[in-house]
Each structure stands twice: as structure tokens, then as C-alpha cells.
Amino acid sequence: MKTDNEIYTAEELEIITQIENDNYMPLPQNEFEQEKKRFQLMAINTLKRKSIPIDIIEQDIAKIEAMALNEGMPYQLFIASILHKIANGELKYSA
């Protein structure tokens, strides 16, 4: 079993200690809002999307829709997820 020092960074351990000792002081509201905007901008820039038109056989769409339904997501998101996994090497493509 890993120790706290192996799981958390020194900064995280300090925050945990402060919380446990009732000494934790969160960011002031104005600093929080600045940090929030900064992280939102980072997320937007990281996750930019591009729409592409593709032609797919109707029978394939029906099968994909059924698979997506089993996964609990819209078929468009399911297709994007599969393409993302292929692009990142998480799902192997074989010809």
C-alpha cells in the first residue's frame, strides 16, 4: 500500500494538513475568479474541436447507434470517442 508521500505532492500534503487542522484559507473571491477564467481558457484551447462531414452507410449508422445506446451516449459522441482513441493509440487500427 502506498503512503501519502507516494500519492500526494508536497503542496497537496500541506493543503490536507491545513484542512485537517482547520487552518485552510481558500483563495479570495477575486483570485478565485481569475484562476477560474485562466483554467477555462486553458480547457477551451486544449479541447478545440473541428466538424468534418463524412458519408457513412445507413446500415453502419444503425449499428453504431445501437452500440452508442449500450454505452449511454449519443452516436456522434461515440464516433468521436472511437476516433480519439485511435488517434491516441488507445484503440488499434488494423487494415
Write the layout of secondary structure elements.
Elements: H1 4-7, H2 10-20, H3 29-46, H4 58-71, H5 75-87
Task: Describe what this molecule looks like in 3D.
This protein is mostly helical and about 100 residues long. The chain has 2 domains: about 5-45, no CATH class; about 50-95. It has 5 helices and no strands. The chain has helices at about 5, 10-20, 30-45, 60-70, 75-85. Helix 4 crosses helix 5. The longest helix is centred in the middle third of the chain and has 18 residues, at about 30-45. The two termini are about 45 Å apart.
Identify the notable features of this structure and list them briefly.
single chain, 95 residues, mainly alpha, 2 domains, 63% helix
- Counting DSSP E segments of at least 2 residues, the number of strands comes to 0
Distance between the termini: 43 Å
Largest sheet: none
The ordered string of helix (H) and strand (E) elements is HHHHH
Q: What is the overall silhouette? A: elongated
Number of helices: 5
Structural class: mainly alpha
- The Rg value, from CA coordinates, equals 22 Å
Low-confidence stretches: none
Number of domains: 2
Residue share in helices? Answer: 55-70%
